[in-house]
Design brief:
Elements: H1 3-104, E1 126-131, H2 140-149, H3 153-162, E2 166-173, E3 177-182, H4 204-212, E4 216-217, E5 221-222, E6 229-239, E7 242-252, H5 254-261, E8 270-274, E9 280-283, H6 306-315, E10 320-326, E11 329-337, E12 344-350, H7 351-408, H8 410-422, H9 439-485, E13 499-506, E14 514-522, E15 525-533, H10 537-556, H11 561-573, E16 582-590, E17 595-601, E18 607-609, E19 615-617, E20 636-641, E21 645-650, E22 658-660, E23 663-664, H12 666-676, H13 682-697, E24 706-713, E25 726-727
Antiparallel strand pairs: 1-3, 2-3, 2-7, 4-6, 5-6, 6-7, 8-9, 8-12, 10-11, 11-12, 13-24, 14-15, 15-16, 16-17, 17-20, 18-19, 18-21, 20-25, 21-24, 22-23
Length: 735
């Protein structure tokens, strides 16, 4: 083809492309200018409507939020006071139940004397016997009843010690005996130095309990000895339907006043407690000149007023929030009842303090809206200028590019044809090094990719095979390293005669996220750990190693189980980008006394076998998982282990093993397997559970790590303790 015709074709292509690009740019520019103007107008209108809507709705939202917060505060305060009274009532009921057991089976208890009050016991917790006027302490029947009631000494001491708010706790009998545990022995003496008689039947708590036949709470009264505000509680004692007396206690109300005072609700916020008769008992403000809710005020007596309306709702045990006009000031009042006493809690906040944030928010929104509109106008103008500059530059670039493309359209096609012709026979080499950016290059890339894939196919297979072998080797090594980090030599402590322990772990993958650990904190304390990381495989194994090391370090520093979990949780949460977590059960066994102290961070319930009993699942208190949230606290509990007691802990891989999600091994089958081997050693017990799981799942694949640990306590090495199980009285059921 003559050169002149080639040049003519290039000119035609260039001219055609320039015209097309120019027209396209003009259309795009015009459309962009139109759209930019419309967007600017719409943005300004929307911003103004949004600001108006925000101002309108923010006031309503703030009011609703404040009322909800006040109601929550009132309910929270009521729950706190209810908890104090519930614990108070529970302590008295416990003493009454124990006394009824004594009367019902008096022959089974040895005589234990209860001394008269002694002046030197003042300030110390002491048990003493007082008598009503006319009662002879030397009377044979009186003496016999006192010796029987002396068996309540430890219970009364424990109740008083565990309830710091108690004035005293006591058993008052129908025969005129008063068995009392308190710290105020000196108040039992008169001015002549003699012990004063105490006629319990004249006290409201005795008369109320005896008359009602059930639990009775007095009104707020001054303590007989200290004159501090106190509430008395009485519970009647019966034996075979015969009234024997009343178990009672008095509680100082200092903690109730503290709960009322502890209110973080701005400078104008206040709280008070109103009894079932509409009288203010406690208030966060004592001055009648600054609050209508001062202590001692009779709200029901304010007939026809807002206070009377509020008091009637409280007496009816209602809850809610009212906006009231009190002393010329509009106030929100939230009220909530208490179930134990019939009292109500009021939380009060002035409307001015509620509306202040809303007014400030409106002002801020107006400023933000004005700034946004000004900034939007500036950006629209700048965008228009920039768009014109871009269109002009694009037109110049289009002219240059069209000339270059016209020269490069034909030559790449000829070069591609020649290279394709050379690909024949065993010659599969094809290389394209020309950059055209069009279908010609795509076609060349397809030829090059085809020949490249054919040549590299065999090489790829060899490389993949070698990589799989390398990964398998590394995972096997990781599995051995993980197993080596956990205690795996048994017997673990062959020189120890006071306990035996055995553990096993079977990961679902090459490496797992479960782990167990046990170690001697010192010669007399054995720490036992079992945990389950939230993931599987290598990430879970790494997380497991870090968790195990942290638990070990803190436990070896002498911290309690709860303190160890709190320290480990805070350290993991400080740098937990993958948001993994681990459940942990940690127990520390005092090998001298058999006292096991434990804490549970979201782990499975442990199983316990008493020396003379069977394995049972113990529902211990659960805390949040480790790594979930920082600054968490954990509850501890204690078991008293006696020789022959066994503790079995495990991960969820045991009860959740199964053929499918709907057919799991479960804790019932696990307990059955434990009970069938409960007389064996810890190793034999774990073997029995493992065989039971294997028989259940058969050939189904393992979905989760399977980890178990069992420890048996034989008693102290110096002298074996006698016993028949574990004392689980300190185990608390989860709420």
């Amino acid at each position: 083809m003559p050169p002149e015709k080639h040049r003519s074709l290039r000119r035609k292509i260039s001219l055609t492309m320039t015209v097309i690009v120019g027209l396209a740019l003009l259309c795009v520019g015009a459309l962009s200018l139109f759209c930019t103007g419309r967007v600017a107008t719409t943005l300004i209108r929307s911003n103004r409507r949004m600001a108006l809507t925000s101002r309108t709705r923010s006031a309503s939202s703030m009011t609703t939020l404040t009322q909800t917060r006040l109601q929550e505060l009132a309910m929270g305060k009521a729950e706190l006071v209810d908890r104090l009274f519930y614990e108070f009532e529970e302590a008295v009921c416990t003493a009454a139940t124990a006394a009824e057991m004594l009367y019902a089976d008096a022959a089974s208890y040895p005589p234990r004397d209860v001394p008269a009050p002694r002046m030197e016991n003042d300030g110390k917790l002491a048990l003493q016997a007082l008598y009503a006027t006319g009662v002879d302490p030397e009377d044979e029947k009186i003496r016999e009843e006192v010796l029987l009631l002396g068996n309540l000494q430890e219970l009364l001491y424990a109740v008083n010690h565990n309830n710091p708010s108690l004035v005293s706790n006591y058993i008052a009998t129908d025969s005129g005996i008063m068995i009392q545990a308190d710290y105020i022995s000196a108040w039992k003496f008169g001015e002549d130095g003699a012990v004063m008689p105490l006629d319990a039947k004249e006290r409201p708590w005795y008369a109320g309990a005896a008359g009602s036949g059930g639990l009775y709470l007095t009104q707020v009264v001054a303590d007989l000895h200290t004159k501090r505000p106190t509430v008395m509680c009485g519970v009647p004692i019966y034996c075979d339907g015969v009234f024997k007396g009343v178990a009672g206690a008095g509680m100082y109300l200092d903690n109730v006043q503290t709960i009322v005072q502890d209110l973080e609700l701005g400078e104008a916020g206040e709280a008070c407690i109103v009894n079932q008769f509409g009288q203010v008992l406690f208030s966060s403000r004592q001055n009648a000149e600054i609050t209508p809710f001062y202590p001692g005020r009779d709200l029901i007596g304010a007939n026809g007023t807002a206070l009377n309306t509020l008091a009637m709702k409280a007496v009816a045990h209602e809850r809610g929030v009212l906006l009231l006009e009190l002393d010329g000031v509009s106030r929100y009042v939230a009220y909530a009842p208490m179930t134990t006493t019939g009292w109500s809690v009021f939380v009060i906040l002035s409307q001015d303090e509620v509306d202040a944030p809303t007014a400030q928010l409106k002002q801020d929104l107006d400023l933000i809206s004005d700034d946004a509109i000004t900034e939007a106008n500036w950006y629209v103008q700048a965008t228009l200028l920039l768009l014109l500059a871009v269109l002009a530059a694009a037109l110049i670039v289009a002219l240059v590019v069209s000339l270059a493309l016209s020269r490069r359209i034909v030559n790449p096609i000829l070069d591609l044809t020649e290279k394709v012709r050379q690909v024949e026979g065993d010659n599969l080499d094809f290389h394209w090094d020309m950059e055209t950016g069009d279908e010609t290059q795509m076609l060349a890339a397809s030829f090059e990719s085809l020949t490249g894939r054919m040549k590299s196919y065999i090489s790829d297979i060899r490389t993949i095979t070698a990589e799989k072998e390398r990964i398998g080797t590394e995972l096997a090594l990781a599995k051995r390293i993980q197993a080596a980090m956990l205690p795996n030599t048994f017997p673990a402590f062959p020189e120890r005669s006071d306990f035996d322990i055995y553990a096993s772990m079977n990961p679902a993958k090459e490496v797992g996220g479960d782990f167990y650990d046990f170690f001697l904190v010192d010669d007399d304390h054995l720490a036992v750990v079992i945990a389950d990381v939230s993931d599987k495989g290598v990430p879970a194994a790494l997380f497991m190693m870090v968790s195990r090391i942290l638990i070990l370090n803190h436990a070896m520093n002498g911290l309690s189980p709860a303190q160890v979990l709190e320290k480990v949780n805070d350290q993991i949460c400080a740098n937990n980008r993958e948001e993994m977590f681990v459940t942990v059960w940690l127990g520390i066994l005092d090998l001298k006394t058999g006292r096991l102290t434990a804490a549970n961070a979201g782990h499975e319930y442990p199983a316990l076998k008493r020396a003379d009993g069977r394995f049972e699942l113990m529902k211990d208190p659960h805390g949040f998982v480790i790594g979930g949230l920082p600054d968490m606290t954990y509850d501890e509990y204690e078991w008293q282990l006696t020789p022959g007691t066994k503790v079995f802990v495990y991960t969820d891989g045991v009860p959740e093993a199964g053929v499918s999600r709907s057919d799991l091994f479960g804790t019932d089958r696990m307990l059955q397997a434990l009970r069938e081997a409960e007389d064996g050693t810890p190793k034999e017990i774990l073997g029995a559970v493992d065989r039971a799981v294997a028989a259940f799942v058969k050939d189904a694949p393992q979905f989760d790590d399977l980890t178990m640990l069992c420890v048996e306590y034989f008693g102290p090495r110096e002298a074996e303790d006698a016993g028949s199980g574990a004392d689980t009285n300190n185990v608390r059921e989860p709420e």
